[in-house]
Automatic annotation (TrEMBL), chain A:
Native source species: Marinitenerispora sediminis
Family named by the database record: Belongs to the ABC transporter superfamily.
One Gene Ontology molecular-function label: ATP hydrolysis activity
Name used for this protein in its record: Ectoine/hydroxyectoine ABC transporter ATP-binding protein EhuA
Biased composition (Low complexity): 14-31
GO cellular component: a single term: plasma membrane
TrEMBL record, chain B:
Key word Hydrolase present: no
Family under the similarity heading: Belongs to the binding-protein-dependent transport system permease family.
Sorted UniProt keywords: Amino-acid transport, Cell membrane, Membrane, Transmembrane, Transmembrane helix, Transport
Single annotated GO MF: transmembrane transporter activity
TM annotation in the entry: 17-39, 51-72, 84-101, 149-172, 184-207
Biological-process GO terms, alphabetical: amino acid transport
Protein name in the entry: Ectoine/hydroxyectoine ABC transporter permease subunit EhuC
Location in or out of the cell: Cell membrane
Gene (name only): ehuC
Signal peptide: none
């Protein structure tokens, strides 16, 4: 597993002109059909009451791409992930996943708001890790990881068990499989939550400020696991994070948000190295100062 | 002292009916509470309305009058006479079930929204969500109130003495009539009810403790889980 201090050398090689980054991201294995982007936001509007969180937002994410969303709180980053996970519904525009409308379904030529069944179909490909872990306290670690594959994907118990063991091994918690989640530290709970999300074999993994609720000394362990996933898989990742070192390491592209719109986007070395927009500069300055 | 020695078998016999009605009534009330409570927590306005009509009707009806109606009035309308014990079970179960339904609905609503969101992220269906996550967590929340309702129902079972079922209260009245020992007859009944209640209380305590242990709350009283705001998230126990 890579150490958390591998930040510097890696950033250097990228800056030195080995653009493993955005232009040609690793294509996802098989499943992605068609030429279009894996995720497409088309003039997406989201309001909470009078508060417009996203205003006609357009952006694409290619299969296999790892995108980090940064920006001040309240700028709509988390809302984007929650819309993708169908935890919120759009007020305008359409979200496409793999060419299928997520927020809507086709009815003849028209698009109508999606029903529960359609959403279950489309969101099968999407997994999410939450800021507060959200493990199920009524289940052991093992069942937290295996219940959804067994019941939702129809995987056999034995297969789900075996996969849970592998995943826990990967996140460094092989010995905790029969523990109760409430007996684990926050960092351990979050790593279980990552294993739980991966057990569903998602094509898209959404990471919603996954280290924000952790004590500082527990952050590195969780980020190491995510770096490892980025290194060894081609899962498409969308991450909202305040960990700029992590964003720099793993992402192909960084999107800077403010007031529900993209202020600036580009490869991490550009955004962090030579941000063009004043708002990006002041945001990064504030974040790095406080960090 | 002789009174108690002589009367003990009679009270024990009465307790059999009291227990029978309590257990039967609780089973019915529990089934109703779960079904109506779950309906009341769905997103469908029609189902919720159905649940709330049930709750309002049967919470507002006196169990005693309902039992009289089932026992005396229904045979006139349908020609079918219920066993008195069964009429009591039905009346108490329908009545207490309405209270229980509100308890179930409240407990389901108290499961944190973040748990619901995790089930969405894992693509569980509504049924799977309820069965695997929501109800097991709500269960610990339901139990204390269910415990109270069990005791309510047990004490309420005394109404059967009015339709000549020889439960504890009926036995006490008979003894009073035949021996004239009013004070002793009812004192013995009070003690018998109290002892039975203590047994139920102890059983419910055990159930509560095991439910909390399954949610990882080791000490008897739960500490509430971290608030989603992020302030309270200090990693949990190591």
């Amino acid at each position: 597993m890579p150490q958390s201090d591998d930040t510097a050398p890696r950033a250097e090689t990228e800056a030195a002109g080995a653009p493993a980054a955005a232009p040609e991201p690793a294509p996802a294995a098989g499943a992605h059909d068609g030429d279009g982007p894996l995720i497409r936001f088309e003039r997406v509007v989201k309001r909470f009451g009078d508060n417009v969180v996203l205003r006609e937002l357009d952006f694409n994410v290619e299969a296999g791409e790892r995108v980090t969303l940064i920006g001040p709180s309240g700028s709509g980053k988390t809302t984007i992930l929650r819309l993708l996970m169908t935890l919120e519904t759009v007020n305008g525009g359409v979200i496409w996943v793999n060419g299928d409308p997520l927020s809507h379904m086709r009815k003849g030529e028209r698009l109508v708001p999606a029903n529960e069944r359609h959403q279950r179909q489309v969101r099968r490909k999407i997994g999410m890790v939450f800021q507060q872990f959200n493990l199920f306290p009524n289940m052991s670690v093992r069942r937290n990881i295996t219940e959804a594959p067994v019941h939702s994907l129809g995987v056999s118990r034995e297969e789900a068990d075996q996969r849970a063991e592998e995943l826990l091994e990967m996140v460094g918690l092989g010995d905790k499989i029969d523990e109760h989640p409430t007996r684990l530290s926050g960092g351990q709970q979050q790593r279980v939550a990552i294993a739980r999300a991966l057990a569903m074999r998602p094509e898209i993994l959404l990471l919603d400020e996954v280290t924000s609720a952790l004590d500082p000394e527990l952050v590195a362990g969780v980020l190491d696991v995510l770096r490892e996933i980025a290194r060894t898989t081609d899962i498409t990742m969308l991450a909202v994070t305040h960990e700029m070192g992590f964003a720099r390491d793993v992402s192909h592209r960084v999107l800077m948000f403010d007031e529900g719109q993209i202020v600036e986007e580009g490869p991490p070395e550009q955004i962090f190295g030579e941000p063009r927009e004043e708002r990006t500069r002041s945001f990064l300055h504030a974040v790095l100062e406080s960090g | 002292m002789n009174f108690f020695v002589d009367a003990l078998p009679l009270y024990l016999n009465g307790a059999r009916y009291t227990l029978l009605i309590t257990v039967g009534g609780c089973a019915l009330a529990f089934a109703i509470a779960m079904a109506v409570g779950i309906l009341g927590s769905t997103r469908s306005a029609a189902l919720r309305a159905l649940a709330s009509v049930y709750v309002e009707v049967f919470r507002g009806v006196a169990a005693l009058v309902l039992m009289f109606w089932l026992f005396y009035a229904m045979p006139l309308l349908t020609g079918y006479r219920l066993e008195p014990v069964f009429a009591a079970i039905l009346a108490l179960g329908l009545n207490i079930g309405a209270y229980g339904a509100e308890n179930v609905r409240g407990a389901i609503k108290a499961v944190p929204r973040s748990q619901y969101e995790a089930t969405v992220a894992l693509n569980l269906s509504w049924t799977q969500r309820m069965r695997l996550v929501v109800l097991p967590q709500a269960w610990a929340q339901m139990l204390p109130t269910f415990g109270n309702l069990v005791i309510e129902l047990m004490k309420g079972s005394a109404v059967v003495s009015l339709i000549a079922v020889s439960d504890i209260t009926f036995v006490a009245q008979q003894l009073r009539t035949f021996t004239g020992e009013t004070v002793l007859a009812f004192a013995a009944a009070l003690v018998t009810y109290f002892v039975i209640a203590q047994v139920f209380v102890a059983l419910m305590r055990l159930a509560e403790r095991s439910a909390n242990r399954r949610l990882g709350r080791i000490p008897a009283r739960p500490r509430r889980r971290a608030k989603p705001a992020g302030a309270a998230a200090k990693g949990g126990a190591a």
